[in-house]
Amino acid sequence: MMMNHSLKSQFKINQGTVIEGKWHHNRYTIVKELGYGANGIVYLAQCRNQQVALKMSDNGMSITSEVNVLKSFAKVQGDCLGPSLLDVDDWIYKQGQISFYVMEYIQGPDLLSFIQQKGPSWIEVVILQLLNNLHRLHQNGWVFGDLKPDNLIVTGPPPRIRCIDVGGTTIQGRAIKEFTEFFDRGYWGLGTRKADPGYDLFAVAMILINIAYPKRFNKTSGDLKQLIFMVRQKKELQKYEGVILNALQGKYHSAEEMRNSLLQLNQARPQSKATNRAPNSNQNQARTNRIVVSRQTHLKKKKRGGFLETFFIFLIISLLYIFYIYGQLV
Amino acid sequence: MKTGTLKQILLITDGCSNQGEDPIAMAALAKEQGITVNVIGVMERDEIDEKGITEIEGIAMSGGGVSQVVYAKQLSHTVQMVTRKAMTQTLQGVVNRELQHILGGEKTVEDLPPDQRGEVMEVVDELGETAELEVLVLVDTSASMKHKLPTVKESLFDLSLSLNARSGENRFSVFVFPGKKKEVEKLLDWSPNLGSLTSIFSKLTTGGITPTGPAIREALTYFKKKRSLRSLLSRDDESFFEESV
Ligand SMILES: Nc1ncnc2c1ncn2[C@@H]1O[C@H](COP(=O)(O)OP(=O)(O)OP(=O)(O)O)[C@@H](O)[C@H]1O
Ligand SMILES: [Mg+2]
């Protein structure tokens, strides 16, 4: 897009350039560019023998906004929410002033490259890890927003998935700040752009689809039908079909629920392996249906519980009323 | 802190105006009236038109808004992004003026130490979520835009999807230019979403000329009409008061 290009051309920071902060006077030596996107450029830099990632943007507001999120993450134990924040400052150069922040450098390939290198057996592992991270994030009142493979780095060893780029991270209940169409449920006509956990879980399903279609694909009918069709087209997605469909339709209320559903998939597998080793689409179909059905019965149970509750309340109120009338008569 | 309704014109065009007032002057006029003008240039892969781009950037700059030139395919994502960005920009301006009140002088957020900017940004975020917003969409339907109109329609749906995820109220209206008889024609009156647009959009005929300047001027009166209606009412109240005294 235009904005990055103008920032990029205006900003060819050479290797070895020293960036000194106007306020905190820390000095960062640029090593190389790590990547760029809609919100700025990220460099690998060196500061007192430590490797750091430095994000710069001609839009100071977006820097401040991301820093706010990272600061709030810092209050939460552990490091699964995002890169830790190290410094925020302005850099004065010949033509003006630009805002930047410095964060922990998360080394490793992005999710798609990692799966390509290591093979599909890692898919499940990293998705489970991701759902864990998301659960913590959601519990703290956030929604990641711009969830996509480019914003997921697998570090290690041992391999561990980390989220970067908190540009889309939004307080629950507000409008999603930033998103990428392919991973956005609004784009596929499957929900709003209000930040709730389901928004991220939809994106997780799309990440699974993206793993099977590394080049992604365009909207044709642009609805659930198209997505189901694309999922059924790929052998490697068969196993996850039930979970993907549930997530696409917003049936999971928390990342933990989706994670459990993914774990259950594994427990069911040894049996089916014993009866038939070859992946059989019919059988898989049946399994998928079972998952959906079991979920529906679960919901029904809940509903029945609700019915009983109402009945009891009704009973108690009627009894009280009878007593009251009786009291009035006597 | 409170802001009035944010008012925006969103101009979607693919090139140079060729009739009537200078659109850059009209955009400046809008800005004077507190209305931001954003422009999205929809290009074909092989038709990057320097003159058109200069005009697009000029209109947004003098209209205090944001501009972006895109290929039709990226339109949806861009329309919502530009609108949100312009909103934040306007709100930041409001907050900056407030800051100047508190801090005195020509201080802006950027003059604060980075550690103190966070709170200001939270205010801007909060306002962006809750502010009332009026977007008047102005679509260029000159002949060259004809085959881009389905994409434009889609991007407007997408825009209302994005903005309606906020808790603040939105009102949209859609105008096209050139119109059948006049320079500008109203397609959709102020409404909280753009859902009713489908049927109207497919019936659109496209014309040859591109009267961008007059279109902006006309759009302004549309915002004003509402305001003057309100002031008319309040004036009526006053005269009634005087009479009764
Ligand atoms: N902390 C980090 N450690 C390592 N690499 C990073 C880090 N932060 C960003 N990067 C790299 O820089 C790239 C761009 O960063 P980022 O996604 O933050 O930019 P952006 O402008 O927000 O992009 P987007 O268009 O996705 O919003 C990332 O895809 C990643 O490769
Ligand atoms: Mg990114």
UniProtKB/TrEMBL annotation, chain B:
Transmembrane segments: none annotated. SUPFAM superfamilies: vWA-like. It holds the Pfam family VWA. It comes from the Bacteria. PROSITE patterns: VWFA. Residues 1-91, 134-245 form the VWFA domain. Signal peptide: none annotated. InterPro entries: VWF_A (IPR002035), vWFA_dom_sf (IPR036465). This is VWA domain-containing protein.
